[in-house]
Amino acid sequence: MNQNYLFGCLILGIILLSACKENKDETPPIKPGSFIFNQINTTKSASISSVQNNTLSSNAFDLGNLKKSAQFYFSLSNGGGSPIFDISLRFRKSGFTIYPEVLSSLEIAEKLSIVPSIKVGIIHGLNLDGLGNAKLLDKGINEDTLSIYGKTLSGKDTIKIHLDAVMRVNALIADISVFDGSNVINFNNYSFVGSVLYKDSTANSGLDRLRSFIYSNALKIMNTGNVPLGISIFCRSDTIIFPQSDFNFYSVLQPGISTNDLNLPLCQNGRFAYIYGVKINSNGTISDITKLQYGSDGNIYFALENYCK
Q1: Nearest to 61 by CA among 50, 46, 75, 83
Q2: Whose CA is closest to 275, among 284, 283, 264, 289?
Q3: 209 DSSP β-pair partners
């Protein structure tokens, strides 16, 4: 066999082996795992990757107006090439809750058959888990940071990764102050009157009695919450047996605004009392239930009494 031919084959073999080695060396390393956090049914997202040297990338999720306690749903997935494990999720404040709080592992997207669903609860006036009432959020903007921690592999090394996502809501609260002359009526000091006094006006309230407050001067009502309030004042139904001046009032009161003097009748003499019912439509917004009483129809009810001397 020709020596030149053998030499040529040898050179060609060396070139091919070198090319194969170069191609093997060019295979990209497997990327560490990285969190991808999305609100379900929206386009908002936040993500972080350990290849960013663990610097934080945060994104605020504006969850809008909050009339009462509510839950929001998110998905958590892995945008890297290595599994994530030892995952924990937690908020910093008590009004924000998360479920689940831990996940054992999170596979890469190609191997993940079901994307974990994350439930964020925001407590505003009502318990989300079971019965009963809960603390109100502060009126207006409230926010907290959800921190998600985990571990993943970078080559043969175990590294820590995490993501911060800010949750923001505008907490709505229905609230009023009632001024009896220059004094503010104390809503903790009340008696009761039967709702049967207002058969038509309280028909859908589900209440058998209303909290009642005494007034003795010209009244004003101020909207001290941050939602418009539809305020109705109406007479008792038995005005033939207990005659009193006819009085009906309705107004939509904007936040921070007060009515003019309501000119509710004041007793001059006699042995009866002027008793008027009040219904406030807050459009489903929660209030401090230790102060204001809700009917089953979602409206706030109470009565105002002026005794004749």
Answers
A1: 46
A2: 264
A3: 194
